[in-house]
Amino acid sequence: MSSAPTTAYKRILVKLSGEALMGEDAYGINPEVIDRIVNEIKDVHRMGVEIAIVIGGGNIFRGIAPSAVGMDRATADYMGMLATVMNALALADAMRRAGLAARVQSALRIDSVAEPYIRGKALRYLEEGKIVVFAAGTGNPFFTTDTGAALRGREINADLVLKATKVDGVYTADPMKDKTATRYSKLTFDEAIVRNLKVMDATALALCRDQNLRLNVFSIFKPGALKRVVCGEDEGTTVTC
Fold first, then answer.
1. What's the predicted TM-score (pTM) here?
2. CATH number of the domain to which 23 belongs
């Protein structure tokens, strides 16, 4: 019998964009896409890895964004946070259907649909093998869900923060436009910031750097990519100090 693959990380936090949930649709949640993402997460969870997720809301907020033109920025940001709660509930529901125990914690108090974010409770859930889905970013306007992921990653003492994207890493140029673009296997946070590589927003990158929080950018749509990252293989782009 072949032995189970050895994981390089015990506890991870995955930053999943809302756009990832809509697949090729214009907006909303694509059932086939969310099930496929959940199966990738399930494969890693079976290996004994503790998993937390920060979810974005672009797939829902994009549909109402034209109505937000001219709106107060803080109000628009709160609307975006509410969109992440909807995504978190859908993701947790898909996980439960797949046989995974999931808990949603929201930085905004919506007690009838989600637990409030409580760090100690989140840590206990992870230790019990449950997947924790963090919604509503940091709970504050003017901060992105990237920053929310960096913050929660540090708070739960994650070994690695993974940014799940549509591209399999960070490239020297846009690989969709420039066929000569090459993928960075490794970068430092300072290189990513100075070169303006759009890995994460600058606040999130600075927080990861200052807290020595390892980051990997990978494609959630590449079968097995999440597992390969967790096993320490050369997948995606790793960003470190």
1. 0.93
2. 3.40.1160.10
